[in-house]
Specification:
- The complex is a heterodimer of chains A (about 475) and B (about 300).
- In chain A, helix 11 packs antiparallel against helix 13.
- Chain A folds into 4 domains: about 100 residues, no CATH class; about 40 residues, no CATH class; about 110 residues, no CATH class; about 110 residues, Neuraminidase, CATH 2.120.10.80.
- A 4-stranded antiparallel β-sheet of chain A has the order 1-2-3-4, with no helix packed on it.
- Chain A contains 13 helices and 12 strands.
- Chain A has about 475 residues and is of the alpha+beta class.
- Chain B is mostly helical and about 300 residues long.
- Chain B folds into 2 domains: about 150 residues, no CATH class; about 130 residues, Winged helix-like DNA-binding domain superfamily/Winged helix DNA-binding domain (Arc Repressor Mutant, subunit A), CATH 1.10.10.10.
- Chain B has 14 helices and 2 strands; from the N terminus they run ααααααββαααααααα.
- Chain B has a two-stranded antiparallel sheet with strand order 1-2.
- In chain B, helix 1 crosses helix 4.
- The chains are: A alpha+beta (about 475), B mainly alpha (about 300).
Chain lengths: ~475, ~300
Amino acid sequence: MAPREDDKAMDGLLRRSLARDAAAGDNCPKPDILAAYSEGSLDDEEMTRYELHFSQCARCREQLAAIFRAVAVMEKPAEEELMEVASPEGAPQVRAVSSISGARRPEKLARRGQFDWRWLAPVAAAILLVVFLYARNLFRFEKTLTSQKQVAMSKQEAVPPAGSMDEKLAIGRTAVAPPAQSPARAKGAGTTQPKAPLVARELPRVAKNSPSAPPPMNDEAARLSRQRAEHETSNHLQKRPEEVTGTAIDQAAPAEADSLSAEKKSGDALPVPSAPGAAAAPGVGTSAQSKAKAGTRAAGAVASGATPKSAARGITNSRLQKQAAAGAQAGADATGMSQVLVAQQPAWLVIKAPDTDVQYRVASVGVVERTDDGGASWRRQRVKTSEEIVAGAAPSENVCWLVGRGGVVLMTNDGKNWEQIPSATSVDLVAVTAADATSATVTAADGRIFSTQNGGVTWQLMK
Amino acid sequence: MPLSPPQFVSLEMAERLLLDARAPSDWNLTAEQFQITLERSTERRFSCAGSKSRPDSPTIEKYLDSLHAADLALACACSAGNDSAWEYFVATFRPELHRAAWAIAGESAGRELADSLYGELFGLRESEGIRRSLFDYFHGRSRLATWLHAILAQRHVDEFRRARKMESLDDPEDDQGGSRAQKLPATLAAPDPERERYLAMMQVAVEKALQTLGPRDRLRLAYYYVEELTLLEIGKLLCEHEATASRKIERARQDVRRSVDDVLRREKKLSDAQVRLCYEYAREEWPFDLRRALLTKD
């Protein structure tokens, strides 16, 4: 027979045997004992004695069960069995029903419907809510505190007066003392000192995250930026007939002198300065003028030919020539500086491939990243070099040249794997232009230009 | 009823307890009357204990302090026939009395039960020319309400035991004829001649096993199987947690089962097959599904 059936058999046997307990008759305790027993007010000796009787007396057990049912019904509306009478004065105030010996009191309470734990639920919920709100406020406070600290730290940096270009921080992140007018102006106008723009701190991030977004700059920095942009633009061209070196730029200076002398001589041909901003991209153009203009950003193109001018025009031209010469010189300086500035740019050197969303980014030493979606996501690529990369050129999406300190030259022709190209020099390389995976031109920090047509197997000194 | 001189309770004690009871003055309860009530209670307590020696004063004082003095004063005043006390009793306890009677005996029977109790409480009965009230039997060891519940329970159970026919609980020897024939499964073509012997052996074995149980274990099993109380109710009755009651009942069942198997195998020398037959016959003879019984009750 299955165990379950055995249990049923045992249940039936037990029930029958226990129900057959003979009533003890005269030995059955009176109702006051039964009542005291049900309340737990009997002492230990009585309890043991009567329990022995109850265990053998069905009649007493039935009575006790009936008492229990009655008590259970009574206990439903109220736990406390306080007998009070709401009546006029003189009515008795009967003592609460707890006047039993202390030894029995816990049993009595346990017997009397137990402790209702349900009331703890809303209390626990309230406690949890308070703890949650406190923790959230604490977190917000700490967050606010942190942001305030950041603001305070950023305030320590220089804050140029409002309204001037100096207000915007230059690239390079050197602290600039606020101009003297600022405090006075602030005092006189009753306005608070202008807040330190967060541009200074944001600039590197902006540069990192949005390589294409130019940060605000002062005039010189803007000019240098334009030069750099033009330099980068030149990388997009398939072919660049000529390279421009600093030597070509230096040729602008003699032109200036010639223009000055021509000014004194009437009828002499005066060089025609090019309009500001009309600097040609490096490598673009075939004339000597183009050569002269190579590398410049701002106005300052060098005049190569003489044209008949009036004295006024000549003066103007000379002035312009001076300006052009100065600009050319500045451009020449800027050319070198642009390369240097490239180096001084934030670590995020970005090289864009033409007509695609492919970009290469030099994240840090030995780390180059590539994006195929215009910068939304980047994949890291390893390059075997410990030198700092300062310039790059990407003539196509899968071809990219990188140059840097110690004459290092790196190139990839599949967009993924990089190899170090034997360099022409150990001098720091500051610029590179490339037409494809085999043709490239690098510029050293000392001004020399080297070119290769066989992917770096051999280099020719251009200048 | 002429009372013997008080042996246990002094008048001072009675006055103190009467003061604690705060019985209203219109109950006209005197210290002497209260002393008599307290004496009766104390005598019953220590006489019933079987002790031959008089308890010492601290013990008596401790006992007196454990009494429900207020309820005892009310009972004493009602027993004395005080109208104010009786009105107070009716106003306070009548609703509760009816509810308890309803819980014990049902709605109609409970009302009748409660109404019959009023007469005895008021003291309509006379004995030897002295008005007797049921309140005289209240000794203050419990609350007056619980005592009233016990009175109702006793009357109901006695009435029920007199009225009901104990068919399902009859001894197998007393009912060997028709009822057992009715219980026999129809599939049995011929009853096993050993059946009676097996059933008798099972009964003896179970009763033997029950004798080995402690009083509380037996009480738990009785509440569980006979009174069909739930584990929660049993726990409340025995002042223990429901889980404790459950655990101990299960352990008691297993002890009984082991004892029965031991008796059948060792003493009666039955084989495993014969033991299985014993259980099968017992299940057929006294079918009882405890689970169904508890579900039906709920």
